[in-house]
Amino acid sequence: MGERAxxxxxxxxxxxxxxxxxxxxxQGWEISARRSVAPLRLTxxxxxxxVLVRAAADGPVARGLEVRFGRxxxxxxxxxxxxxxxxxxxxxxxxxxxxxxxxRVTARADGEFASAFDVTHGRALMRLSGAPxxxxxxxxxxxxxxxxxxxxxxxxxxSVAKLVTDLVRDDRGGEPSYLLHCERSSGQYLFDAxxxxxxxxxxDVDGFVFPGV
Amino acid sequence: xxxxxxxxxxTLRLEPQPGEVIDRNxxxxxxxNGQRFPAYHxxxxxxxxxACGERIFSRSFKYHRPRGLLSxxxxxxxxxxxxxxxxxxxxxxxxxxxxxVVSAQNVWPSLRYDVKSVNxxxxxxxxxxxxxxxxxxxxxxxxxxxxxxxxxxxxxxxAKDSAHGYYDKRYxxxxxxxxxxxxxxxxxAVAAAEAGAAVLLVEEEYELxxxxxxxDAGQLEALRELRxAVAAAPxxxxxxxxxxxxxxxxxxxxxxxxNLPHVVERLVKARAKTLVVAPGLIERPYxxxxxxxxxxxxxxxxxxxxxxxxxxxxxxAVVLSANPEGDAAIDDLARAGxxxxxxxxxxxxxxxxxxxxxxxxxxxxxxxxxxxxCDLLVTAVxxxxxxxxxNMAGDxxxxxxxxxxxxxxxxxDDVLVAGGIAGDGPLEQLTEHARAVGREAARRAAETARSxxxxxxxxxxxxxxxxxxxxxxALPELPVEDHPALFFSGTRGFVDFSEDVxxxxxxxxxxxxxxxxxxxxxxxxxTMGPSQGKLETVNAVAVLAAxxxxxxxxxxxxxxxxxxAPITLGALAGRIFEPVRHSPMQPxxxxxxxxxxxxxxxxxxxxxxxxxxxxxxxxxxxxxxDVTPLxxxxxxxxxxxxxxxxxxxxxWSRLDVGSVRYGVMxxxxxxxxxxxxTGRLAEDRYILTATSSGAATVQExxxxxxxxxxxxxxxxxxxxxxxxxxxxxxxxxxxxxxxRLVEDVDLANEAFPYMRVRVGRIAGVDGCFMWRIGFTxxxxxxxxxxxxxxxxxxxALLERGADLGVRPFGVEAQRILRLEKGHFIVGQxxxxxxxxxxxxxxxxxxxxxxxxxxxTELVWQSRRDDYFRLVGLxxxxxxxxxxxxxxxxxxxxxxxxxxxSRMSPTLGRSICLGFVAPSLTGPGTQVTxxxxxxxxxxxxxxxxHAHFDPEGTRQRG
Lengths: 213, 957
Fold this sequence. Notes:
The structure holds 2 protein chains of 2 kinds. Chain A has 4 helices and 13 strands. Chain A is α+β, with helices and mostly antiparallel strands. A 6-stranded mixed β-sheet of chain A has the order 10-11-12-9-3-13. A 5-stranded antiparallel β-sheet of chain A has the order 5-6-7-4-8, covered by helices on one side. The relative contact order of chain A is 0.22. Classes of the chains: A alpha+beta, B alpha+beta.
């Protein structure tokens, strides 16, 4: 982390979630440089590019994305495609990739009415990882998180700590891992609620590591 | 009689017992009513005290009679104590801890000599309905009565500064929940788990085992095997010191979990696919004169005390036994060195008449006339089946004359029963039955899971074809053994120990005409105390049946409802999760010491300490306000103009790129729903704004139109309220300030006039858009900046505008500014009945549009003239600010109200908006405003809403 350059020169994007010290700036984002190997880890993943795609549930765009409502999967480029609603997808990609992702999707439209909207700044995104992740989440979310009902790759829009949240199970390294996605303005609230829920499982904050998806 | 002084130590502690739960290697001390007492880890508060010879643990609810041990379990009514700051602790259940400070509740001056026991003397006046009859008149005296009666209420004390504990909540989705961890519950849980189910086994006591824990060597061996099986079974989660407190539709269960180290209590909300109810049986007290004296105990209470806690329950006992369990208690007493002076066999006719004594049993008078001196009377007269969870599942248990208890009748498919509640039989037969129940519960749960998953395509497509349904498990029949029906002896004695309701009370109630059990319950409060009928329901029914000459089945029972066991308010409240919303500039506002305003979920700066100064800064120089909560929607698609025409009452067909228009939305009833501006940023891109408080409603309203009314329209709506940080830059020097930060937009009035939108770069941030509109009446620009850079732009505005006198202003200053300008606020100056014309929005309504939401109603309103109208008002005495909601009166009639009022720093006088009757709308009309203190003030109706710059020259400049 270098000296902070004069304001006009260095454009630093800030997540709604205050970075847990030590903070650093990487690729234009202020992030926490904290590293944790705790059994349960919470990471602010807001810097990820987030593109909201709207198109017919069965049109060319949908076929190109190959992910149906309620599921999430990575495409050939490593973009995580989340079927967040009927005819609605959320694409998660490394920071800064939003314009390219958006134009790639709309290029597939082939005359279909489709839109791709960069919601990177409008949403907060966090990841809860570790063996006790499901148990911690069960304190704030009424969804059945068992493997049978919410397996790896499941995507639901639900209530987490009374907040409308898109919940994606995206396991990592053989451990349960969840992405939680909400309106930016409530990002800090949701982050704090998850820390509260994870307290008994020894949750710790783990800083964002690029590319992060 | 040998009442041992407690201070001498654990004089009634027995030699080690095979099933004891105390750890003699871990002694500890605690205090009881200020005195130090010894105990062992594993002791309950009351077992420790009993080991030291204490016999009285509380005074009763109404008569303040001394009360001691009865059941030695959670529901023991006489053992409710205060622990530190925690009231109403179940002293016969809560384990004692080192240094614990325990005291008796509701006694004065002491437990031993309680003054309020004079109530016993006047007891004959405190019969059923006493409070209803005595304190109902005169009504005005009730507050005085209440103050006095409150002192007589039972229950402990909570200090106002009591610390908040961490009360937790958790959701669970087990296949099978087994309520009750006795032998049947354990066997059912193991069998269900072995059949592949995820099982939650819930037990109210600290250990699994139920009555096996105080059984003989064979039963203790069976207990060891069952516990080992539970520990070895895959997928059984055991919750001890926990209780299934309610069962709701779809097996939605509320479970209170108390066995956690890190939280006070946790409420587990479990959606069980099947529920196995296996609570065992609760021993029923016997109703006779003196049955509440300390020293009168249930046989199970005695057996718990002797076998689990190694406490000698008395010195000389009379035992009334009507079943084998009572007979076993006689053996336990003998082993504990208690002299059994007499055994009365309840199976052979008349029993006992009364127990006598002052602070405890001193003698028992038997039905045969013999009087036996003793300090302990043990009764074993039968069982109550705790069918609460079955009642909650819709079952109406039926009374079995043979067994003298209620048995389940018709259970729903997702509820099964095991153990004593289901029937009788030797241990092997009951556990064999329970194993079959467990397997069947697992099978039914699998069926349910299969059908649930089949309904979710995302899951169904991933799973292999469902295995063939398994055949139902045959559930063996359980016998029901004969038991004598023993409920009461004579017409005296307590039926409800918690509420101090006697048999006489019930008989008196019946004589007064309250002859239905439901009425008797409510009139006498029988079964309504903390034990909630678990000890007293059947006795109450039996007494009432006898008083009315009916049978028990004819009399019926009351219905058990949640909660099954008393629950703390903390557990019900759980963790308090209340989502809040913050703008990206929130850290700055906090650092600047802004007064927070809670506006729905948003936390906003109300002011930075000086709203009037903030107003003046905007009027003279320039101010900036964080308006991020403003609802913002990105609309794309060819049919957007159609949508706008449908939602707004004004016309939208022609809105050029770069233009902004104000619009009003009405609901179908013509009532003003919201207002805001919509701008066209590009050929196919619009931004629609809604009020901060109306954003959610507008989103639903838009989605309702697109999803249900016009799914054919090609429009994509994305809520972007929080994607942009929104800043209003207002004041005569706003253009100058913005010119220092905006790089690629010509801000000159001709190039960027009023009601236009431009996209550009501000303070180095791309992708911003700004429009020339405002709520303040000044030249102003509303900037919308990608949210991650909002704070940067906010700070840049303050930094670069310092020499221009820029100041941040809060919501209060904005409210003053907009009132000076006469802008109304939907929801503040309008209400749920304000149609567009009444709000003065007739100019915007275009009835020549073929259709729009609310048109039919507005056509009708346009033809009428009988509605109140929003007008600008100025009190004649400009120093008076009539509070908002002050009424405007015309003679004795209400002729309007003040909707907004403030002192205007700009005009140096009070200004208002308000609704007035049609006859009062003419400019210059003087109206009378009635103030809340009864005074009146005259106010003049203004020619327009605006009090300041009505021509609008400042904002267009």
